[in-house]
Amino acid sequence: MTEKTLTATPADAGDAGYNKALKPRHVNMIAIGGAIGTGLFLGAGGRLAQAGPALAIVYAVCGLFAFFVVRALGELILYRPSSGAFVSYAREFMGEKGAYVAGWMHFLNWSTTGIADITAIALYAHFWSFFSPVPQWVLALIALAVVLTLNLVSVKLFGEMEFWFAIVKVAALVLFMVIGIFLLVTQTPIDGGVPGPQLITEHGGIFPTGLLPMVLIVQGVVFAYASVELVGVAAGETEHPEKIMPKAINSIMWRILVFYVGSVVLLAMLLPWSSYTKDQSPFVTVLSHLGVPAADSVMNLVVLTAALSSLNSGLYSTGRILRSMAKAGSAPKFTGVMNRNQVPYGGILLTASVCVLGVGLNYLVPKEAFDIVLNFAAIGILATWAIIVVCHLLFVRKTRRDGLERPAFRLPFSPYTEIATLVFLAAVVVLMGFDETGRITLLALPVIAVALVAGWFAARRRIDMRAFDEEGM
């Protein structure tokens, strides 16, 4: 059978009216920002202390599956760019129920992540004595108000903010790696010890605490990559996504290798793995041992930037996702409304309103606020990734059934890649049961399932299965 090119693709009604204002540099930096966050700047310290240099292997394995997810999304983007991203693809290949679940799980992820972000921003601000007198909840509210206001102005301003947030993160990592490589090459002693591979071999090797701790930290590492899928949402507001997206998505893999795997290997060769703690950024640990002045202040500024970037991206993506759902009737009608700058402010305000609840958490239980909401975000991340992979599987099956030609930018080794990724994500869910925080997350699943079912029955009368324009069908 002669294969036909995918030409007549359905248009998502939620894509109408957007201003194609995101430039290639914006999209590239959104891809970088999604791959680099507080999971590296802060989380790597505690995970190094738990699993030792084996953390580099975990980052590599989890990074590979994160790349498979975003590469699958990339092929779907080239098939049909959409601001609704995976919700729009779920609607086409899984039906409106699939889109409904995809959208609300994404909302659950980013609305709760937003609460974690404003909590983190307030905590990081308290690092400086100038902000110490200001209550944590007030700082959280100010952070939300500022990022919300800027997000509502225009997509171009969002792109600029993400561009500079990513620049700060990348510049900090590159500078640290240059310093670290210089210390290795010159064999400059750190606390009386000479940096080098011997620090790994002399302190228990690659697996100093055994294999079990390495396996158990997988779930935490997966969440460090939780923003990589946001580049798909940006595709709907950029011109020529077929040229920009493959380059941006392919670059994610080498950035993971360099910044995550490379940084961990470097950290393990600069100080013994037991020198790091979960209470301090591993980069600050090294720099403080070197006696670098104000190293902790500089790194605190970087992690503050990472949290602001995450909050900014969460408001942006949920606004677009909810608009796609609102056009089909599976989200409140007001979330589909745009302002004169083509920004879907209804969905953004809904996400921000949930974050306001986080301000209340910061007032009532400031110490526990971060951990409470992160549990729920974990479920949303895994669900979103799984739906992207399932959509790609169904898409490939459709192309084979109808004799259609897939885009040149493809997920390699399909369908084995998708199956392996789904098995991996299922394994992460199982691993969550071995962790106290993870068990709380799993116990919340029935509650979330009931809420989704109740929401579907409440909304099903207004569901419009013609969310795809009839002309494109």
UniProtKB/TrEMBL annotation:
Membrane association type:
Multi-pass membrane protein
| InterPro entries according to UniProt | AA-permease/SLC12A_dom, Amino_acid_permease_CS
Report which residue ranges the record marks as coiled coil. none
Q: A Gene Ontology biological process annotation?
A: transmembrane transport
Q: Write out the transmembrane intervals.
A: 27-44, 56-78, 99-125, 137-158, 170-190, 210-231, 252-273, 298-322, 343-366, 372-395, 416-434, 440-459
Q: Alphabetically list the UniProt keywords.
A: Amino-acid transport, Cell membrane, Membrane, Transmembrane, Transmembrane helix, Transport
Question: Pfam families of this UniProt entry?
Answer: AA_permease
Where is the protein situated, by its record's location annotation? Answer: Cell membrane
Give the Amino acid permease/ SLC12A domain ranges.
26-465
Provide GO CC annotations from the record. plasma membrane
In which family does this protein belong, per the annotation?
Belongs to the amino acid-polyamine-organocation (APC) superfamily. Amino acid transporter (AAT) (TC 2.A.3.1) family.
| Name of the molecule in the record | L-asparagine permease
Species of origin reads Amycolatopsis camponoti
